[in-house]
Double zinc ribbon
Amino acid sequence: MSMFLISTTILAIIAAIIYAILRITRKNNGQDYEGESPYKKLFYIFLGILAVILVFFLIGVNVESGCYGFSLFGTLASIISPIIFLLMFLGFFIILILIGRFVYYDAKSRGMDPWLWLLVVIFVPNFIGLIIYLIVRSYNTNDTKPYNKRCSKCGSSVREDYNICPHCGENLKKKCEYCGQLVDENWNICPHCGNNLSK
């Protein structure tokens, strides 16, 4: 009975985290995350705490086992087992770095805060953070277009189909004087009628 209660509580916490993250990303949708994120400092704080805990854990294991270093005359098993452990640890660490790199650049390209998602994916254990990111990522891509255009006045990321920058109010497209169609402000010739726009 208590296992059911624990698993239900864990699922409720995960659902609450997903809901909160969805709310945060909805409010921040359209922001430019090229600059400093408030989650960048939090990420480095957690990384430092994790490193300190890992060092104390390894020191504690060595002190308890009475092993203060490798013996030159130890058996082959006592030499190989730490190497295997180190290789497994490095493999896990490399996988974590690759996942973090993917999430950082993917979130940045989708207009989401990359440091927030890096924090969630790296520090929520058992790949639950990655699962949360993938759920939110798929939810956000259904109704949003990528912010792959920049405003010429303020430099903010804007969607390709925006006519006016939501940050500064700058016109992102102009009308062709001949046919009246909206065209990009950087174009020299109207693609609809062939009129010269650089006049």
The radius of gyration is 26 Å. The CA atoms of residues 90 and 96 lie 10 Å apart.
